[in-house]
Amino acid sequence: MAKDLSAIIIGMDPMNNEAIWEKMLKKTFWGQGGGGIFSAAMSGIDIALWDIKGKAWGVPLYKMLGGKSREKIRTYASQLQFGWGDGSDKDMLTEPEQYAQAALTAVSEGYDAIKVDTVAMDRHGNWNQQNLNGPLTDKILRLGYDRMAAIRDAVGPDVDIIAEMHAFTDTTSAIQFGRMIEELGIFYYEEPVMPLNPAQMKQVADKVNIPLAAGERIYWRWGYRPFLENGSLSVIQPDICTCGGITEVKKICDMAHVYDKTVQIHVCGGPISTAVALHMETAIPNFVIHELHRYALLEPNTQTCKYNYLPKNGMYDVPELPGIGQELTEETMKKSPTITVK
């Protein structure tokens, strides 16, 4: 897909990212239907264009986006159902005590916010996503609640908890579980229903007294528009690497600001995803928090690039190198397929 798009834009000035973005969108015809694969290809090209521009001008990306709105980027430890801190890939946790311990480990490293999915795995360690359409049994609800409550009891009231649902629940079960965990002081409730369903998201928002978040599987301004117009989402979560790149996501963030919505960039990839997110998050006024996924700490991810940006006491500094402030290693380049477009 990136090869096909590259053929469309060869010969254009890389400084003209707006014109290039529009040409990729309009010249392909079917591309206007959107979708993750097409949008991700556009994103890769767009990020490269901004990197070229920053390196040519000798400035970091955030300065081209308007400068800093903040010096430090507050960060949460993400996906604690996989554990935290041992540096290995492991099976998902099952017992409430394990969830509590993972949260305590993250807090001991300086994080004052965490995200966790407490319903995706059943009591025996089996994936549970096929069994979460409502109405849910008390057994399933109680297990998810007990895990979440164990975390709250362990970390106390001053740590923010994001409840991740991965859209495994539907409208009925999301309302059931959301109401159940309201008393635990949840920071926000992520993807409680299918992320392309603004009407159902609104139903959950009206019934559950927790701010809703979604966006990693919503694409372009046109995808976000119905969610902003119906007011269902309090936090939007565009992924710069799949949502159209820097050019598009900056517009989405500005659009959300008009509706008094905050932004948490979705970061579930490698060091390039982290770098571009940090630049965007320091620039926009409506930033809320940065995501550090557990898998981003594993060596197969960290070793792909030259710079391993990490938070200190739950706070990131913003890269100051020109462009996005990140480079692939020579080893990564050797392992990757090379495609030449003429």
From TrEMBL:
Kind of enzyme, top EC level?
lyase
- Give start and end of each Mandelate racemase/muconate lactonizing enzyme C-terminal domain: 96-211
InterPro entries xref list: DgoD-like, Enolase-like_C_sf, Enolase-like_N, Enolase_C-like, Mandelate_racemase_C, Mandelate_racemase_N_dom
Lyase as UniProt keyword: yes
Q: Does the keyword Lyase apply?
A: yes
Question: EC number(s) of the enzyme?
Answer: 4.2.1.6
Could you list the residue ranges forming a coiled coil in this record? none
Please list the GO terms describing molecular function.
galactonate dehydratase activity
Q: What is this protein called?
A: Mandelate racemase
This chain's source organism reads Salmonella enterica I
